[in-house]
Amino acid sequence: xxxxxxxxxxxxxxxxxxxxxxxxxxxxxxxxxxxxxxxxxxxxxxxxxxxxxxxxxxxxxxxxxxxxxxxxxxxxxxxxxxxxxxxxxxxxxxxxxxxxxxxxxxxxxxxxxxxxxxxxxxxxxxxxx
Length: 129
Description:
Layout: E1 4-6, E2 14-18, E3 23-30, H1 35-49, E4 56-66, H2 68-86, E5 90-98, H3 102-114, E6 119-124
Parallel strand pairs: 3-4, 4-5, 5-6
Antiparallel strand pairs: 1-2, 2-3
Helix pairs in contact: 1-2
């Protein structure tokens, strides 16, 4: 299975997944003009990946900010991972948030409350401070 990589822009996050390392990362800002179109390759890639026997995935979410339409797409991604989890795949989501960023912390907690897949909250102190 091939890796997936989408380069970061001022409006879209970097998306990188190497199936050999089983690490999937989404980082940056997610405010694309059309979230559904932007995340379509991710959804298609996950559809193909979930067919791999014994596949595991650790999703690292390191977003600075995301808009409402991106939130919907994130839920869709998380639901696919949830389905994989229920089908016997080892799945963990790690939600990173700046300790001073209450909005990102609350968003992670909201996702954690509605999902039935392990989601770890990881607070950090920004290097800029």
